[in-house]
Amino acid sequence: MDSNNTIGLHAAWVIPLLSAIAFLIIVISMRLVGFFFSERSKLVMLAPILSITAILTGFILFWLVLLDVLNFGGGSISMNWLTVGLTEIRWGIFVDKVSVTMLGLVTFIALLVQVYSLGYMKGDRHFEWYFAIHSLFAAAMLTLVLADNLLFLYFAWELVGLGSYLLIGFWWEKRSAAEAAKKAFITTRIGDVCLLIGIILLFKATGTFNISTIFHIAESGGIGEVTLNSSILLIFIGAMGKSAQFPFHVWLPDAMEGPTPVSALIHAATMVAAGVYLVARMMPIFQLAPEIMLIVMIIGLITFIFAGTMALVMSDIKKVLAYSTISHLGLMMLCLGAGGVAAAIFHLVVHGIAKALLFLGAGSVMHSISNETNIWKMGGLRHRMPITAVTFFIGAASLAGLPPLAGFFSKDELLLSVLHDGQYVVLAITLFGVFLSALYMARVAIVPFLGSTPKHLAKSHESSLIMWIPLVILAILSAGVGFLILPLSSSYPGWAEFIDPTHHFELEPWLMILSIILALAALILGWSIYLKKSVSAKQVSQFAPYLYKAILNKYYIDDFYQWVIDKCVLAFGRLVALFDRVVINDTAVDGSAISIYLSALKTRVLQTGYLFTYGAAMAIGACGLSILWWVLLD
Amino acid sequence: MIELTHFQVLSGLLFAIGLYGVLARRNLILVLMSIELMLNAVNINLIGYSSFMNASESHRALGHVLIIFVITVAAAELALAIAIILRLYRNKSSINTDDINIMKW
Amino acid sequence: MTSLVFFYLACVVILSGGLTVVLSRNIIYAAFGLMAALAGVAGLFILSFAPFLALVQILIYGGAIVIVIIFALMLTKLEDFRTLSDHKHWPIALIASLLTLGTIVAAAFYTPVNLASRRGVDLSKMAHELFSQWAIPFEIASLLLLIALMGGVIMVRKTDSSDDK
Question: Of C22, C48, C77, at which residue does a domain stop?
């Protein structure tokens, strides 16, 4: 099996390269257009054409890679970049089932989002730049997924962060968008630094960055326990930053300042999944540190519940979806902590499709009602925008866990993993979280689309073709993808075993039925609160007013962080500035000059100009010298 | 009996007197005179050594020769010093050492 | 014995002359005191069996130097100086001169010298040394005198508009 030179393998590294080339060409042509043409409108479509072509080709090549993996099981190729002493730093790709899955997800969602953006971003001032960053981001994300060594992965990780920053702050003329981009970058940066330290620790312990090699060395006990535990913890913190786990979640809701397709791509399906992907990829060494796995699970659980409560009270549709994303990412981490790699990856795919669908649907709604995002100002939109409404319902139902949609299957697998890990307390809390997620999904689906239309929205209409086709495609997938989990034929033992050969497809009927009951109960509750209004939302919120206020204020975490920044970080900065000004500038630099000046000022006085002074000094000096000579020499 | 120490002590006394005159007197010409005293003190010392040294005559002759030279140089230096003083007097109409203090900080 | 008496006599003359120079209020008295001191030194030279040097001393110091000094005193106004307050900084001057005296006397008493009885140097011997062993310093001394002469003349010339002041 010549797995290192197949067409599929080479197709794999071409995929990100295409997007990178598209990015470069768009950027260069933007400059040239600026120089040579004053009339932009003719060339403005060049950018999306290049970008979409690149990603479409990437998607087509993905199928080649998939074929390759199915036949040969994947492989890796690499090329030497830099040799420093005995260390080789290489560019390389590693294709296996997990990475090919991510490859498919990223290219597919990116393609759909870029097509959608043709309609959404039409007429925007920085139209070409938008597609340029999309290409850059796609190239970086694809590289991250394919990377075979940690350094290359980190390189792509940072580029992905850059792409996110650029896209969140796309409308940077708006102050809040610029602030949000900065917040995102800085918060993830803390995680990135920890990730880098973790990578370096592993490199120090093993002498290589290559992931497979590190696994071999670690499994044969070649890494000390302290080093192993600390580097794994640091890597997890890096993943926490990117995947918006508690306490690094603060950037994701603010990131909604970016255009909605961006939120769909980056903050639902791909970039935030990078953290989950990293943990999944590094799972062989995570399993060598069971305490860290426990930490992963607990952080995932906290994030899941915590963000779920916040999603329940927000009025901004995009913020609800953002908190829902955080919550589901927590759920994925929870599952990874319990050891269910296959289930987590499956949920990543399902969630990615469904969340992208929901975001694009929200964007469609906002586009037609002049960017209004408050759900209480919307209502009854299913009459005005039927396609959007239906697809939105499908996405919401999928994520709420209704059978036979995909979300039900993936949630079931997740719960199974937690059960098999023997964590019954965690399971109970997770079930509560499942209830919450179904409830808020019901809320965000019912309020804008059902009920009566307010007067000011009477003119709203369905979006253009180019915007609802991706919605439909995503809805179909969202409904159907779930069946992949089942063993469909003799050669296909079900998704879980496909990914992770030790995992066999099982059913625990009582768990399945329990989750269905919870989801239905939540839906019925949501129906009665928000549509029938038989249970008043206000009364529920008055039940625990302080808790309600706390949740509404995002548990005051943002305020706490701001306080820390103001008091500690800025104070430290001021201290350093003071030190620099007083010690280094005034004392050392200015001081050495001034001290010379002052000493000269005092010494100058000796030159009085009087004969007497000089004569006396000479006489006494000469006597002194002769006495000294006499004393020293005799 | 005259001893070398007599010459030496006398020379020292005259030198000290001359030094006091240089430092304490305000008229520049008096300062000059005191300098002459100091030079003469040196001469006394030299002749003393020349007389009492236990060396050959040609070595002792150095003392006398040096005395000649000291006298010569004293004369030359005095001439130039007077020239300077006269110039100074022409410019400042004063040869008081307290008034001559331009070369200071 | 007699030489000692004469020595002390010369001593007295020299020291009183020196004190007159240094302490006298009247500068003409000071000039004469200088003359006396120089004459005393000439006497010492005679005591040391160097009559030629004594002659040179009287001739040059007494005949030229003191005269020149008195000329210079005349050229600068005499009346002003009667009212001068001398010895303004006498403490430091006293200290300096006493320090010097102490140094010299201490050196005198503590330096071992190889001594013989007092004797002079023959004039012809001295002349021989001057023109053979010490010929170059002699020539330089004459050059020095030339330069001093020229310098003195240039310095005191009356300046007209063509010279820089």
Answer: C77
How many structural domains compose chain C?
2
Compute CA A559 distance to the chain's CA centroid, rounded to the nearest angstrom.
Answer: 22
* B93: contact with A, CB 8 A cutoff: no
DSSP conformational letter for A5: S
Q: Which chains touch B (3 or more CB pairs under 8 A)?
A: A, C
The runs of H, that is alpha helices, within A207-316 are 211-219, 225-242, 251-254, 260-264, 273-281, 283-286, 290-311
Total-model pTM? 0.70
**Residue of chain A with shortest Cα separation from C96:** A620
- Quick check: bond before A290 cis, omega within 30? no
Of chain A, the percentage scoring pLDDT greater than 90 comes to: 15
Nearest by CB to A611, from B19, B100, B102: name it.
Answer: B100
Nearest CA in chain A to B28: A611
Subunits adjacent to chain A (3 or more Cβ pairs under 8 Å): B, C
Residue B57 contacts A where some CB pair is shorter than 8 Å: no
What backbone torsions phi and psi does residue B53 show, to the nearest 5 degrees?
-70, 145
Give pLDDT, residue A166.
92
Instruction: Please check whether residue C135 lies inside any domain of the structure.
Output: yes
Architecture in CATH for domain B4-92: Orthogonal Bundle (1.10)
- Nearest CB among A605, A609, A612 relative to B23 is that of A612
For residue A623, what is the nearest residue in chain B, using CA coordinates? B16
- Residues in Cβ contact with A476 at an 8 Å cutoff, skipping those fewer than 6 apart: none
Query: Hey, is A210 helix, strand or coil?
Result: strand
Domains of chain B, by residue range, sit at 4-92
| Domain region containing C28 | 1-77
Calpha distance A440→A396 (Å, rounded): 9
Do B103 and A609 make contact, defined as CB atoms within 8 angstroms? yes
Task: Please give the pLDDT value at position C18.
Answer: 95
pLDDT at A453 over 50: yes
The CA distance from A179 to A162, in Å, is 15
Alpha-carbon span A267 to A257, nearest angstrom: 12
Contact yes or no for C99 and A623 at CB 8 A: yes
Residue A82's SS3 state is strand
Segment A469-495 shows an average pLDDT of 74
pLDDT of C7 above 90:
yes
Q: Does A607 touch chain B (CB under 8 A)?
A: yes
Q: Which residues 6+ apart lie within 8 Å of A317 measured at CB?
A: A362, A365, A366, A373, A374, A375, A378, A444, A448
Q: Is B35 on the interface with C (CB under 8 A)?
A: no
The structure tokens listed for A224 are 């000390």
User: Average pLDDT of C62-84?
Assistant: 79
- Judge whether C136 lies within some domain: yes
* Partner B contacted by C25 (CB < 8 A): no
Are C73 and C145 part of one and the same domain?
no
B20·C22 Cβ contact <8 A? yes
**Domain end marker among C77, C107, C131:** C77
Bridge-based pairing state of the strands A75-84 and A87-95? antiparallel
Same domain, C11 and C67: yes
Asked if residue C101 belongs to a domain, the reply is no
